[in-house]
Amino acid sequence: MGSRLAKQQKEEINKLVTKLSLSDEDRDYTVDTFRKFCRFNMKTMSRDDFKDFLAMMNMTSYNELLISAVFQVLDTNADGELSASEFIKYFILLIRFPVATKVQIVFDIIDRDSSGCIELAEIRRYYHDLATSRAYLVGARDSRQLTDRDIDKLFSQIDSDSNKKVDAKEFEQHARTSGPELLQLLDAYIED
Fold first, then answer.
1. Nearest-CA neighbor of 175 among 101, 95, 86, 114?
2. How far is 89 from 102, CA to CA, in rounded Å?
3. SUPFAM superfamilies under this entry (predicted)?
């Protein structure tokens, strides 16, 4: 089973590398970073491993609630651990990579069912998991002011063709024209 899992992980990483057009050097760097923080095995990262990674990245503003929220959002298969590909997506958000790559990663994270479109329920989950602890990014004074109505309004702005689904093109257009707030919820590094 262990070799099968390793093979499956390599396939996931290769798909991600191809999709994001990462160089071999970038792939090796991100995989090595993942392995460095996997305490008990080389296949998945626990929440405690992830917390250690955040400490190494000097992300001292992350409290326990935010660590849990980010971990839950990144754990797209909901197995309680981060696979290499789940971790690599987040790591790329934190370091220098083209904004288009980061937009694609955040789109994929929000699109939990991998349908190629984001539905209202998916963007609500993303915001409820993350934005409540970062309400200032959407203009609310505190998390209690971030309502489903606020999220519905944002979704309507992104859904330019009003078909109740946001495709990758609409998402990228919104990120480019309306600012990177959707990316910043995961602390994506955005150069000015």
1. 101
2. 8
3. EF-hand
The CATH number for 188's domain is 1.10.238.10
153-188 confidence digits (pLDDT tens)? 889 999 999 999 999 999 988 888 876 677 776 676
Which residues are CB-neighbours of 176 under 8 A, at least 6 positions away? 99, 103
Q: Are residues 118 and 45 part of one domain?
A: no
User: What tens digit of pLDDT does each residue of 23-73 get?
Assistant: 889 888 888 899 888 877 668 999 999 999 988 888 877 778 888 888 988
By the 8 A CB rule, do 36 and 43 touch? no
The Cα 68–Cα 161 span in angstroms is 34
Angle at 97 between CA 96 and CA 101, to 5 degrees: 150
For residue 40, what are its two tokens? 């008990």
pLDDT of residue 128: 77
Q: Could you tell me if residue 14 is inside a domain?
A: yes
